[in-house]
Design a protein that fits this description.
By secondary structure, the protein is α/β, with parallel strands linked by helices. 45% of the residues lie in helices and 8% in strands. The chain is built from twelve helices and four strands. A four-stranded parallel beta sheet has the order 2-1-3-4, with helices on both faces. Helix 11 links the parallel strand 3 and strand 4. Helix 7 packs across helix 9. The chain is elongated, with a radius of gyration of 24 Å. The relative contact order is 0.08. The model has no long low-confidence stretch (mean pLDDT 87).
C-alpha cells in the first residue's frame, strides 16, 4: 500500500493522540495490567498476518489495544527489579533512532551514533578505572554480556579455537555460585565448551559464594586432570542481591591463572553510587 502525505499526516495525528493514554496509565487508580489468558487475549486483538496493509484508523485501533493489554510500566504501582518505564528524553531518543532507521555497523552508515557509542565506552572505562586504551561493547542485556565475556576469555587463553575449533582446547571447568545467572550455562553450550563444564559453587544463607567451597572445587578440577579456566563472580544476584567476595576470588584467579569475570549486570550500579553522589 502506498501512503500519501494526507494519510501519513492523518496517522501521525492519531498516533500522537495515543500519548493521552500515557496520562491515563500514569494514574494511581489504573491497573498495571489488564490480564487475560492467551486464548482470550488473542480474541481481543487481531494480530493475524494478511496481505493487505491496514489503514490509519485500523492501525490506531491496533495500537490502542496493544497499549491497553500490555504492562503499564509507567504506572506508580509498577515494581520490577530489572527495568522501569523511560522518561520523555529516553522516549524522544528512541523516536529519533526509529525515524532515522539506520544501522550502526560502520561510521559511514551511522556517523553520529558511532561517536556517541565510543564516548559512552570511554566514560565507562574511566568509571571502572580501566586504561584509556581499553575497549568495550554496548550489549543488549546481561545474557549477551555473559556470552561475550566467556567468548573473550576462551579466545584469550586458547586463541587456536578461532580456527581449529573447541576440540583444540583442553577440558576446562567454569565456576559460578549456585545463585549465579543461568545465562552462563547457555553461553558455555553456545561457544562449544559445554554446559557440563559449569561447576556450581555452594553459597551461604545470604546467597554469597563460599570461598572455601570454591577452593575445594578448584582442587577437585586439578585432581581430575582438568583445567581451572573461568570464575564468574556475581555482583548482585537477581534473587537476593548478593555480592560474591570479589577480592578473595581475584587472589585465587591470580594464584591459579584463572580468568575472572564479574557479572555486574544487576548490581553493578552500586559501584558508581559514590561517583554519582560526587563523593
Amino acid at each position: 500500500m502506498i501512503i500519501n502525505d494526507e494519510d501519513l499526516f492523518d496517522f501521525q495525528t492519531k498516533y500522537m493522540k495515543l500519548l493521552d493514554l500515557y496520562g491515563t496509565a500514569n494514574d494511581d487508580e489504573v491497573k498495571v495490567l489488564n490480564f487475560l489468558h492467551p486464548e482470550e487475549l488473542s480474541t481481543k486483538i487481531d494480530i493475524s498476518l494478511c496481505r493487505e496493509s491496514s489503514n490509519p484508523d485500523e492501525m490506531k485501533s491496533i495500537l490502542e489495544k496493544v497499549f491497553k493489554f500490555s504492562v503499564h510500566t509507567m504506572s506508580p504501582n509498577f515494581y520490577q527489579q530489572l527495568f522501569y518505564w523511560g522518561d520523555c528524553w529516553g522516549i524522544g531518543g528512541q523516536w529519533v533512532a526509529e525515524i532515522l532507521s539506520t544501522s550502526a555497523y560502520t561510521y559511514e552508515m551511522s556517523p553520529v551514533f558511532t561517536i556517541m557509542e565510543k564516548e559512552v565506552i570511554k566514560e565507562a572505562l574511566k568509571l571502572w578505572n580501566f586504561p584509556s586504551t581499553g575497549e568495550g561493547y554496548i550489549c543488549h542485556g546481561g545474557a549477551q554480556s555473559m556470552l561475550f565475556a566467556l567468548n573473550v576469555a576462551r579466545n584469550q587463553f586458547y586463541p587456536q579455537v578461532k580456527t581449529k575449533g573447541a576440540s583444540s582446547m583442553p577440558n576446562v571447568d567454569i565456576y559460578t555460585s549456585d545463585e549465579g545467572h543461568y545465562s552462563l550455562e547457555k553461553s558455555a553450550s553456545i561457544i562449544g565448551i559445554g554446559s557440563e563444564s559449569i561447576v556450581p559453587v555452594e553459597t551461604d544463607d545470604l546467597g554469597i559464594m563460599k570461598i572455601d567451597a570454591l577452593k575445594a572445587a578448584i582442587s577437585k578440577t586439578i585432581a581430575n586432570g582438568r583445567r581451572p579456566f573461568y570464575i564468574n563472580a556475581t555482583a548482585g544476584t537477581t534473587v537476593t542481591d548478593a555480592y560474591d567476595p570479589i577480592d578473595e576470588i581475584a587472589n585465587l584467579c591470580e594464584q591459579h591463572n584463572i580468568w575472572l569475570n564479574i557479572d555486574a549486570a544487576f548490581g553493578g550500579m552500586k559501584f558508581f553510587i559514590p561517583y554519582a553522589l560526587g563523593c
